[in-house]
Specification:
The complex is a heterodimer of chains A (about 200) and B (about 270). Chain A is built from ten helices and no strands. Chain A is mainly α and about 200 residues long. Chain A has two domains: about 100 residues, RNA polymerase sigma factor, region 2, helix turn helix motif (Rna Polymerase Sigma Factor, Chain: A), CATH 1.10.1740; about 90 residues, Winged helix-like DNA-binding domain superfamily/Winged helix DNA-binding domain (Arc Repressor Mutant, subunit A). In chain A, helix 3 packs antiparallel against helix 4 and helix 9 crosses helix 10. The longest helix of chain A is centred in the N-terminal third of the chain and has 23 residues. Chain A starts with 8 loop residues before the first helix and ends with a helix. Chain B has about 270 residues and is an alpha+beta fold. Chain B folds into two domains: about 50 residues, no CATH class; about 180 residues, no CATH class. Chain B contains eight helices and ten strands. A four-stranded antiparallel sheet of chain B has the order 3-4-5-8, with helices on one face. In chain B, strands 7-6-9-10 form a four-stranded antiparallel sheet, with no helix packed on it. The longest helix of chain B has 22 residues. Chain B is elongated. Chain B starts with a helix and ends in a 5-residue tail after the last strand. In chain B, about 35% of the residues are buried. The chains are: A mainly alpha (about 200), B alpha+beta (about 270). The interface between A and B is large, with 82 and 50 residues.
């Protein structure tokens, strides 16, 4: 375990859109936990585009993506009191929730449309990752950092995170042993984390 | 330790939800015990959150009104951990057992030799695989007590194998309420049984499953089950079965209990006939 505890998560994580937003989000969540609707309004404005973006990337179907986005934001409302700033940034908390919900949705419908998704997602090039992004600065950073990964690392992360595949599905899509993919995924995220941290 | 290191390679898939539900459950249990790992996952999730940020797309404006209206109609959850279920109500200490249908009897083949049923063979191989895992883990231990531990493991495997291959071996299986499956192979003549469980509900690190024999002769603690490996618990051997014994599984403090805690469990009927 080296180079893991990288100081305060919110300091390590600059906001997607504007500086200082992360701290605001923490404060807002604390207010939301007390039932403050205005604070929830602010939270919505800060995270809705990112939540919708990642959900749509994984789920693809626009109507389902809206449903999942609504579920995620409602979960933020319901569980705001469960957010623990000591265990990561508010943004990471919301995005973890969003990504997991999106993945749950595609896996629950996977059986019926497995083949379609397979074709649809397998050919998402990583350059497309940043399509339609609101913050071009953030997009550029992530693009650059993804570009610093090895090809296998990048494909693993792209298929897993944006494609919603399990590591063993990624392994069979790429024709690489599962054990290799697991390690590449971890290496890739560590590199991304360090690269994005430096960029901040 | 090899097992921990193997588990740890799941950190990447876990942080990206690229993991099967059983692997996720294993890793969650691991995280509960490993502070460093929890920190690593937190830091990796800062990275994945940035991947999400790079995919941002404005949702349709009408969504906001729907979300705000839904929030207004939704009760929020209080802070703090979820209350633990009371000791007497752990959801999975008992399970219905279908004794009869799973009774297997030696079958006569054309050659006139007894053949274990296919189901029994499958259970036997699963148990044997678990025994091999246990032996392999012992192998990894530092050389000091290795020979002792290895011979203990071998003795255990032999004990397991003896029950599994007994002519009167009978297999029973049952679903555990709340999740998981229990498989038992019992030999009446040896008064022993082999107990294994798969995919039991995970307990906090401070608690473990304890196996009991409950009967006219009183409650006897059989063993604290070892932590599950790859979702598989056991095999463990219970010896000295007596007529009228029932088998029960309870959740107890990890150090073990002298008597089954809480209300008496609805035990699994073993139907020991000696």
């Amino acid at each position: 375990m080296t180079a893991i505890d990288r100081s305060d998560p919110d300091r390590a994580r600059p906001s997607a859109a504007e500086p200082g937003a992360a701290a605001d989000l923490n404060t807002c969540l604390r207010l939301v936990a007390r039932g403050d609707a205005d604070a929830f309004d602010t939270v919505y404005d800060q995270v809705a585009a990112t939540v919708f973006g990642i959900v749509r990337r994984v789920v693809r179907d626009p109507a389902q993506s809206e449903e999942v986005t609504q579920d995620v934001l409602l979960e933020v409302w319901r569980n705001a009191a469960k957010f623990d700033p000591g265990r990561g940034s508010a943004t990471a908390w919301v995005m973890t929730l969003a990504h997991r919900r999106a993945v749950d949705r595609v896996r629950s419908v996977q059986k019926e449309s497995e083949r379609e998704r397979r074709t649809a997602v397998a050919d998402v090039p990583f350059d497309e990752v940043a399509e339609a992004v609101e913050s071009s600065l953030e997009r550029e950073r992530v693009r650059r950092c993804l570009g610093s990964l090895t090809e296998l690392q990048r494909e693993s992360v792209t298929l897993a995170y944006y494609g919603g595949y399990t590591y063993s599905q990624v392994a069979s899509l790429l024709g690489v042993p599962g054990g290799t993919i697991k390690t590449r995924m971890r290496d890739a995220l560590i590199r991304l984390r360090d690269c994005l941290g430096v960029a901040s | 330790m090899r097992h921990t290191r193997d588990l740890h390679t799941l950190a990447g898939p876990y942080a990206m939800d690229a993991i099967s539900p059983p692997d996720r459950a294993r890793f969650d249990r691991h995280l509960a015990r490993c502070e460093d790992c929890a920190r690593e996952i937190a830091s990796l999730r800062e990275a994945t959150a940035r991947l999400a940020a790079a995919a941002a797309v404005s949702p349709p404006p009408a969504l906001k009104a729907r979300v705000m209206a839904a929030a207004a109609a939704t009760r929020q959850r209080p802070p703090g951990p979820e209350p633990e279920p009371a000791l007497g109500t752990w959801p999975l200490r008992t399970w219905p057992l279908r004794t009869q249908p799973f009774r297997t009897r030696p079958l006569r083949t054309r050659q006139g030799r007894p053949t274990p049923s296919r189901r029994l063979v499958m259970a036997a191989s699963a148990v044997a695989a678990a025994a091999a895992v246990a032996a392999a883990v012992v192998f990894g231990v530092s050389s000091g007590g290795m020979r002792d531990q290895l011979s203990q493991a071998q003795a255990r495997s032999q004990q397991v194998a003896a029950v599994l291959t007994a002519r009167d071996a009978t297999m029973m299986t049952g679903a555990v309420r709340g999740g998981g499956t229990v498989t038992i192979v019992m030999s009446h003549s040896m008064r022993e049984l082999v107990f294994t469980a798969a995919a039991l509900h995970a307990l906090p690190a401070s608690r473990g499953y304890e196996l009991w024999l409950i009967g006219p002769a009183g409650d006897r603690a059989v063993i604290m089950l070892p932590p599950a490996r790859h979702g598989m618990t056991g095999p463990v051997v219970a010896s000295g079965l007596r007529p009228g014994d029932h088998l029960a599984l309870t959740a107890e403090p990890a150090s073990g209990a002298a008597h089954p805690a809480g209300r008496p469990t609805t035990p699994m009927m073993l139907d020991v006939v000696l």
